[in-house]
Amino acid sequence: MENNGKTRSKRSAIIIMGLALFATQFGAGNLIFPPFLGRDTGSHWFIGFIGFFLMDVGLAVAAIISVVANKKGTMDGVTDRIGKIPGKIMVSAIIICLGPLIAIPRTAATTYEMGIKALLPSIPLWLFGLIFYGITLLLVIRPTKVVDIIGNYLTPILLAVMVLLIVAGIIHPIDTATLVHGAKPLNAGIVNGYQTLDGIGGVPQALMMITAATAYGYTKKEDIRDTVAGSALISGTLLALVYGGLTYLGSTVSGVAAAQGLDQAPLLMFITGKLLGNFGAIALTIIVLMACLTTSIGLSSVVGDYFETLSNGKLQYKKTVVTVIIISYALSNFGLTNIIKLAGPILGILYPPMIVLVIFALLDGVVKNDHIAGLGAYFALAASLMANLPMGPLSDFIAKMPFASDGLGWIVPALIGCIIGAFIKMPADHEKISDKIRKDMEDGMDLDLNN
């Protein structure tokens, strides 16, 4: 991205960056979760959506803003509160989830479940995956304009189909939302929000937005902060509207017998078929195929770049990408439902400490003692491990915590960690360095921490 020596107006930059961020976050794989949430929460779908919004859109926006709002203005400024090495480990774990462990395997599995299986039943998942990841490998190793064309044109088309689907469902709902007995709307929303990976993906995505702001001619910290934060709010608003609409559509089939028992992808196909007919379902399948292929290519490239940079070139980009794609192909053969089941506990462990770190990065100018955020994050991590792994009495203990029924049993332990951290004094040298960083950033000076 070039600015040719000119600085684009801030409003224009924010709009363009916001739409670009929306295109990055608006993955076809994420579309399968809101309708599933709506069906399982029925007439209480909006409460479920609130939980989904908080852990998906809300956290993603907060995570992006936290990177540019903290004193360092970097990703390290969010994660270093738990220590430099643990912070790198956490970011690496997030990148692995965004890559070969969950998100990339889900692209092929989602595409297969959302239409290939019905349109071409003679093609098994393993063969489709081989073709899908073969194309991914070819384009990620030798990038071409095909990828840009797919990303630039198919995302708007996918969005247009979604808007058409939502409007049709509002004007002519399939049925009325019914009361789903035994449903836990807030908990269901939180769990489904975790699955999108938008929340934990916000921190690394912020780096892309910072690069874009710089390319548009903005170099001052406050200008970068304003443009990145503005773009995050635009993307978040668009995502909220689409996801809210899809959750509502899911609620309209909560009492439809044929929709019961369907997994995430078949359910969205069922709703699309009911509202737009067979042509709509086929069009959605083709668009999802292209969108998922773009996502697979983009994420593979991100993982390759990240680990090459982290290892100072020891992990070469091409070798890393090949490894990522091989692992992704292997995991994709477990099927979409099993990938989602695998992701559940992993994301349930990673999200709570990241939420704590994001909150305190946003409060960077108010809370100066890093031990508060650090211990809060570690206590949240301990609680999430107990909640998501079979630990006998420890798991039973966390299950009895306040808010545990809504998937938030880690909140009280995190608060306890924050309180303990508040009584641990930061080293004097650290305080001086922190004060110098704050002063330098306020004055708009370049930092040289090595001097």
Written overview of the protein:
The protein has 451 residues and is mainly α. The chain has 2 domains: 10-341, Amino acid/polyamine transporter I (Up-down Bundle); 367-441, no CATH class. The protein has 18 helices and no strands. It has helices at 10-25, 33-41, 45-69, 76-79, 84-101, 103-119, 125-141, 145-171, 185-195, 198-215, 221-251, 264-310, 317-332, 336-362, 370-388, 393-399, 411-422, 428-443. Helix 7 (125-141) packs antiparallel against helix 13 (317-332). The longest helix is centred in the middle third of the chain and has 47 residues, at 264-310. The two termini are 33 Å apart. The model is unreliable at 1-6, 428-433 and 445-451 (pLDDT under 50).
Layout of SSEs?
Layout: H1 10-25, H2 33-41, H3 45-69, H4 76-79, H5 84-101, H6 103-119, H7 125-141, H8 145-171, H9 185-195, H10 198-215, H11 221-251, H12 264-310, H13 317-332, H14 336-362, H15 370-388, H16 393-399, H17 411-422, H18 428-443
Helix pairs in contact: 1-10, 1-11, 2-3, 2-9, 2-11, 3-9, 3-10, 3-11, 3-14, 5-12, 5-14, 6-7, 6-12, 6-13, 7-12, 7-13, 8-11, 8-12, 10-11, 12-13, 14-15, 15-16, 15-17
Q: Could you please say which CATH topology of the largest domain applies here?
A: Amino acid/polyamine transporter I
Structural class, please?
A: mainly alpha
Helix content: over 70%
Q: Low-confidence parts, pLDDT < 50 over ≥5 residues?
A: 1-6, 428-433, 445-451
Major sheet, described briefly? none
Number of helices: 18
Strand content: under 5%
pLDDT average, as an integer? 85
Write the CATH architecture name of the largest domain.
Answer: Up-down Bundle
Say what oligomer this is: single chain
Order of helices and strands: HHHHHHHHHHHHHHHHHH
Please tally the β strands and state the result: 0
Question: Which CATH class of the largest domain applies here?
Answer: Mainly Alpha
